[in-house]
TrEMBL record, chain A:
This is ATP-binding cassette domain-containing protein. Residues 4-251 form the ABC transporter domain. It is a peripheral membrane protein. Belongs to the ABC transporter superfamily.
Automatic annotation (TrEMBL), chain B:
Keywords: Cell membrane, Membrane, Transmembrane, Transmembrane helix, Transport. Residues 97-326 form the ABC transmembrane type-1 domain. This is ABC transporter permease subunit. GO terms for biological process: transmembrane transport.
UniProtKB/TrEMBL annotation, chain C:
Belongs to the binding-protein-dependent transport system permease family. InterPro entries: BP-dependent_transpt_permease, MetI-like, MetI-like_sf, OppC_N. It is a multi-pass membrane protein. GO terms for biological process: peptide transport; protein transport; transmembrane transport. It is found in: Cell membrane. Pfam families: BPD_transp_1, OppC_N. This is ABC transporter permease subunit. Keywords: Cell membrane, Membrane, Peptide transport, Protein transport, Transmembrane, Transmembrane helix, Transport. Residues 86-271 form the ABC transmembrane type-1 domain. The chain crosses the membrane at residues 16-37, 84-110, 130-155, 195-228, 248-267. GO terms for cellular component: plasma membrane.
Length: 288, 336, 283
C-alpha cells in the first residue's frame, strides 16, 4: 500500500460549491508527486486535507485519506492530529508569516520532537543544530536563539525546511514553498528541498503552479482543473506525451527554459471549454 | 536610544498631566462659588474661628500664592492636615492605600482569569453555541456597571446564599498581628491562613463586582484577537505538528493576541481603580475610596485634595507601567 | 455564514425593540406618575412598615411591592424615582453630548492648537476617578438636581470628545472633504456640512450610552446621599435604604435594583443595537 492513498476525496464549501471532485492519488514512500493547476484548482486544498488543516468554512463530503495505512477521516480529531504530527510535516508557502514572532527559532524547531515524539530537550536541540547546518545556515547556535524578525526571508524558509525534516517524517507537503521568495533565492531553496528529500528518503507532495519546478523535482504528477484530476501520470510521460488536451495546452503555455524566446501560447479557449464541460458532466453524473 | 527617547517623552507628558490635575483640583475647590472655610467649620462658628482658619490655610493670600504654597507643600510630601482628624493627610492616605491596592489587584486578577477563560473557551469552541453564550454573557457584563453588580452580588452571596461577608475588610474580633497595611500579603507571609481566608471572604464580592465589567472587556477583545491570530500561518503550521486545538491556542496564539488587549486593559484598569470609590462604600470596605466619600461628606478639603491627587498619581503610574510592559513583551520593540 | 448573520441581526432587532419598550413604559410612568402610582410616595405609615410584596404572606392589599421601614409604598416610590432618573438622563445626556461632541469635532477637524488644548484636557480628566470627581463637585456646589446634571456634564464630556475627535480626524483625511474644500467651502462650513453628518451616528450611539451612565451616576450620588433633597424618592436613595435593612426587608432593595438594572441595560442595549444598525459592515 502507498504511504499516502487518497480515494475519491470530495471537499466543498459548507452549503456551497465543490472544491475537490472525487480526487484520488497515491504517493509511494520516498516518491515526489507534483500537484499542478491554476490558482483555485484545489491543489492546495489536497495538501490541507491531508494535514487536517482545512479552513473551518470547508468540509469533506466523501472519500478516504489513508496515511501510513490508517484512514485519517475515521479518527478522532485529537488522535488524527497526533498521527499527522508524528508522520507528516508541512513546508509552508510564506516564510514571513509561518514562524511565530514571539518565540525564538530553537523551540519552534524542537517543539514537535519534545512534545509529540517525547524526545529529551538536549537530544532535540542537538538534532535541530544538525539540521540547521544541513540546510546551510551559518552559525546555527546563534540562529536558534534568534527571533524570526531578525532573519531574512530565505533564512526563514531554510529554517522551516529544517523544521519539517526534523522529526524524519515519512511525508512532507510542500505548499508552493518558493512562490513567496526572490527569484534568486527560489532556485537555491528548490535545490535544497530536492537534496534533502533524496538524502532523507521522504515522500513529498509538491504543490506548485510552475511546470519548470515539476520537471526538476517530481517523479509523478497530478494535473487539476476545478477540483477534478484531469491527468495522473509520471513526469517523464507528461513532458513527452501528455494525454489530456488541457495538460498539453498547459505544457505549451509554459515558457521553455531551452528556448525562452519561443513565446507564450495561452491555453486555447476550446480546451478550456472542453475541460469545463468535463467538470459539468462530472457534477451532473453525481447529482442526476 | 529610540526607546529611551520615547520614555522621556512619556515621562514629560505624565508630568504635564499631573500638574494639570493639581491645577484642576485646586480650582474646583477654591474658585467654585462657596467659601471653603465656611464649609470646613461646623455651624455656629464665630468670626474669629473663620479668620484663624483662613490664615492657617493661607486663604487670606492671593490665589496664585495659595496655589504656590499648596504645590510647594505637595512636592515636599506635605499634603496638609485633615480637618476632621487633625492628622497629616499623607499619613491618613498612605494608611488606607494598601487596602485599596489589594482590592484593585485582587479585582484585576479576577478579571484577567474570568475574561481570559471566557476568551479561551469562546475561541476553542468558536462558531457554535458556546461562543454565542460567551458573547451574550460578555454583553451583559459590559452593559451594567460595577455598582450594580455589587448590589446583585450582595443579594446573591450575602442574603440568598450567605457565603461571603457583605461589609468590612476583616472580622475585627480576630487577632490581627499586622505591621503593614497589606493584610492579604502579610497574612500569607505570616502563614496565618485563617486570617487570609477571612480577608478573602470579605474581599471576594467587592473585588468580583469591580472585576466583572473588566472581565467582559478582556473576554471580548482577547477572543476577537485570538480568533484573528488563529487564522495565521504559524498557527496552522503548529496544528500540523500534532498539537491539540487548546494547546495551539495557548502556545501559539495567546501571547501574540494578548498584546493588543494589554494596552486597553491598562486604561480599563484605571477605571476599575476609580470604581473602588463607590464599591468600597457599598461594602463598607476601609479603603481610600470610602475615606474619600467620608471626607467629602465632612467637608475635609485638605484630605479630599490629597486623595484625588493620589488617585491621579496611581492612574498615570498604571498607564506608564502598561506602556513599559508592552515594550518588554513585544520582541519586535525589544530588539528593533 | 448567511444564517448566522441574519440571526445576529434578528437578535439585534429584538434587543432594540425590547429596550425601547421598557424605556417607553418607564417614560410614560414617570410622566404620569401622580396618576399611575397607587399611593403617595411620601406618605408614611409606621403601622404599615416593612410590608412584604403581594405574593408573600403578611402582605397588605394595595401595596403591591411592599413598603419600606417608614411604611412608604415601594412601587409608588419607584415610579416617582423614575422622574428624577429620566430627567437627569435626558438633560445631562444631551448637554454632555453637545459639549463633548463639539469639542471633539473642533479638535479632530481643526487640529493644531485646538487639538493640543482639548487633548491635554482629556488627558487630565482621564487621571481623575470619575465617581470621586462627581462627589467632589456635588460637595462643592451643594446637592440638587442641577448640581448633578452639571457634574455629569463636567466629567463625562471626554467620553464624547475622545471618540468624536478620532472619527472627525479619520473623516477629515478622506477625499470627499478635500474636494469640498477645493470646491470653495470654508473650514467651518466643511465641518458642519461634510464631517458632522458622518459622525452623527456615532454621536447618537454615544448619547444613548451616556443616558444610561447618567442614570447610574444619579443613583450613585443618591446612594451616598448627595443627590436631590432627601425627601424626594430616588432609586439610589431607595437602594441605600434597602442596603441597610437587607436582612429584614429584601424587597426594599430588590425592586429598585431590578428597575435600575433593567433601565441601565436597556440604554446600553439600545446603544449597541443602534451601533449595529448604523454599522454598514454588519448590515
Amino acid at each position: 500500500m502507498s504511504f499516502l492513498d487518497i480515494r475519491g476525496l470530495s471537499v466543498r464549501l459548507k452549503k456551497g460549491p465543490a472544491l475537490l471532485r472525487r480526487v484520488s492519488l497515491q504517493v509511494q514512500a520516498a516518491e515526489v508527486r507534483g500537484l499542478v493547476g491554476e490558482s483555485g484548482a484545489g491543489k492546495s486544498m489536497i495538501g490541507k486535507a491531508v494535514l487536517g488543516i482545512l479552513p473551518p468554512s470547508v468540509e469533506v463530503s466523501e472519500g478516504e485519506i489513508f496515511l501510513d495505512g490508517v484512514d485519517l477521516l475515521r479518527m478522532a480529531p485529537s488522535e488524527r492530529r497526533r498521527k499527522i504530527g508524528a508522520v507528516a510535516a508541512l513546508i509552508p508557502q510564506d516564510p514571513l508569516t509561518a514562524l511565530n514572532p514571539s518565540h525564538r527559532i530553537g523551540p519552534q524547531i524542537t517543539d514537535r520532537l519534545v512534545d509529540i515524539l517525547g524526545w529529551t530537550r538536549a537530544r532535540a536541540e542537538a538534532r535541530a543544530l544538525e539540521l540547521l547546518a544541513e540546510v546551510q545556515i551559518p552559525d546555527p547556535a546563534r540562529v536558534m536563539r534568534s527571533y524570526p524578525h531578525e532573519l531574512s526571508g530565505g533564512m526563514r524558509q531554510r529554517i522551516l525546511i529544517a523544521s519539517a525534516f526534523a522529526a524524519e517524517p515519512k511525508l512532507i507537503v510542500a505548499d508552493e514553498p518558493t512562490t513567496a521568495l526572490d527569484v534568486t533565492v527560489q532556485k537555491q531553496i528548490l535545490r535544497l528541498i530536492a537534496g534533502m528529500q533524496a538524502r532523507h528518503g521522504t515522500a513529498l507532495l509538491f504543490v506548485t503552479h510552475d511546470l519548470g519546478v515539476v520537471s526538476k523535482v517530481c517523479q509523478k504528477l497530478s494535473v487539476l482543473y476545478s477540483g477534478l484530476v484531469v491527468e495522473d501520470t509520471s513526469v517523464a510521460e507528461f513532458f513527452t506525451a501528455p494525454r489530456h488536451p488541457y495538460s498539453a495546452a498547459l505544457l505549451a503555455a509554459t515558457p521553455k527554459y531551452t528556448d525562452p524566446l519561443a513565446g507564450l501560447n495561452p491555453v486555447p479557449d476550446a480546451v478550456i471549454d472542453a475541460v469545463r464541460a468535463e467538470v459539468a458532466a462530472f457534477d451532473r453524473m453525481r447529482h442526476g | 536610544m529610540r526607546v529611551l527617547q520615547a520614555i522621556l517623552v512619556r515621562l514629560f507628558t505624565t508630568a504635564v498631566t499631573l500638574a494639570g490635575v493639581a491645577v484642576v483640583v485646586f480650582v474646583v475647590i477654591r474658585v467654585v462659588p462657596g467659601n471653603p472655610i465656611a464649609m470646613m467649620l461646623p455651624p455656629g462658628a464665630t468670626e474669629e474661628d473663620v479668620a484663624r482658619l483662613t490664615a492657617l490655610y493661607g486663604l487670606d493670600k492671593g490665589l496664585w500664592a495659595q496655589f504656590g504654597i499648596w504645590v510647594a507643600g505637595v512636592v515636599q510630601g506635605d499634603f496638609g492636615t485633615s480637618i476632621t482628624t487633625k492628622a497629616p493627610v499623607l499619613e491618613l492616605v498612605l494608611g488606607r492605600l494598601p487596602a485599596t491596592l489589594e482590592l484593585s489587584i485582587m479585582a484585576l486578577v479576577m478579571a484577567v482569569v474570568l475574561g481570559g477563560a471566557a476568551a479561551l473557551v469562546g475561541t476553542r469552541w468558536r462558531g457554535g453555541r458556546v461562543e454565542a453564550s460567551v458573547d451574550v454573557a460578555n454583553g451583559m457584563a459590559l452593559s451594567v456597571p460595577d455598582f450594580l453588580w455589587g448590589l446583585v452580588l450582595i443579594l446573591l452571596f450575602g442574603v440568598l446564599v450567605p457565603v461571603f461577608h457583605i461589609s468590612g475588610r476583616v472580622t475585627p474580633s480576630l487577632d490581627l498581628p499586622f505591621t503593614t497595611g497589606f493584610y492579604l500579603f502579610e497574612s500569607l507571609f505570616r502563614l496565618r491562613f485563617d486570617l487570609w481566608a477571612d480577608l478573602v471572604a470579605h474581599m471576594f464580592m467587592p473585588a468580583l463586582a469591580l472585576a466583572i465589567p473588566l472581565a467582559a472587556i478582556i473576554g471580548q477583545l482577547l477572543k476577537q484577537s485570538l480568533k484573528e491570530t488563529m487564522n495565521l500561518d504559524y498557527v496552522t503550521l503548529a496544528r500540523t505538528k500534532g498539537y491539540g486545538e487548546f494547546r495551539v491556542i495557548l502556545r501559539e496564539a495567546l501571547r501574540n493576541a494578548a498584546l493588543p488587549t494589554l494596552t486597553l486593559v491598562g486604561v480599563q484598569f484605571t477605571f476599575l481603580i476609580g470604581g473602588t470609590v463607590i464599591i468600597e462604600r457599598l461594602f463598607s470596605y476601609e479603603g481610600l475610596g470610602n475615606m474619600a466619600i467620608d471626607a467629602v461628606i465632612n467637608r475635609d478639603l485638605p484630605l479630599i485634595q490629597g486623595i484625588v491627587v493620589l488617585f491621579a498619581v496611581i492612574f498615570t503610574a498604571v498607564n506608564l507601567v502598561v506602556d513599559l510592559l508592552y515594550a518588554v513583551l513585544n520582541p519586535r520593540l525589544r530588539h528593533g | 455564514m448567511v444564517d448566522g448573520r441574519s440571526l445576529t441581526r434578528r437578535r439585534a432587532g429584538a434587543r432594540l425593540w425590547l429596550s425601547l419598550t421598557w424605556l417607553g413604559l418607564l417614560c410614560l410612568a414617570a410622566l404620569f406618575a401622580p396618576w399611575v402610582a397607587p399611593k403617595d410616595p411620601l406618605a408614611q405609615d409606621l403601622f404599615l412598615g416593612r410590608l412584604p410584596p403581594f405574593w408573600v404572606t403578611g402582605a397588605e392589599p394595595g401595596y403591591y411591592l411592599g413598603t419600606d421601614s417608614l411604611g412608604r409604598d415601594v412601587l409608588s416610590r419607584i415610579i416617582h424615582g423614575g422622574r428624577v432618573a429620566l430627567m437627569v438622563a435626558l438633560i445631562a445626556g444631551v448637554a454632555t453630548c453637545l459639549l463633548g461632541a463639539t469639542l471633539g469635532l473642533l479638535a479632530g477637524f481643526l487640529r493644531g492648537w485646538v487639538d493640543m488644548l482639548v487633548s491635554r484636557f482629556i488627558d487630565i480628566w482621564m487621571a481623575f476617578p470619575p465617581v470621586l470627581f462627581s462627589i467632589l463637585l456635588i460637595a462643592v456646589m451643594g446637592p440638587g438636581l442641577w448640581s448633578i446634571i452639571l457634574a455629569i456634564v463636567v466629567i463625562d464630556w471626554t467620553r464624547f470628545a475622545r471618540v468624536i475627535r478620532a472619527e472627525a480626524m479619520a473623516q477629515g483625511a478622506m477625499d470627499y472633504v478635500a474636494s469640498a474644500r477645493v470646491a470653495g467651502r470654508g473650514r467651518l462650513g466643511t465641518m458642519v456640512r461634510e464631517i458632522l453628518p458622518n459622525v452623527l451616528p456615532t454621536v447618537v450611539v454615544l448619547l444613548t450610552l451616556e443616558m444610561g451612565i447618567a442614570v447610574i451616576v444619579e443613583a450613585i450620588l443618591s446612594f451616598v446621599n448627595l443627590s436631590i433633597s432627601t425627601d424626594d424618592p430616588t432609586w439610589g436613595g431607595m437602594i441605600a435604604e434597602g442596603r441597610t435593612s437587607i436582612h429584614q426587608a429584601w424587597w426594599v432593595l430588590v425592586f429598585p435594583l431590578i428597575t435600575l438594572f433593567l433601565t441601565v441595560l436597556a440604554f446600553s442595549q439600545l446603544g449597541e443595537g443602534l451601533k449595529d444598525r448604523f454599522d454598514p459592515v454588519l448590515r
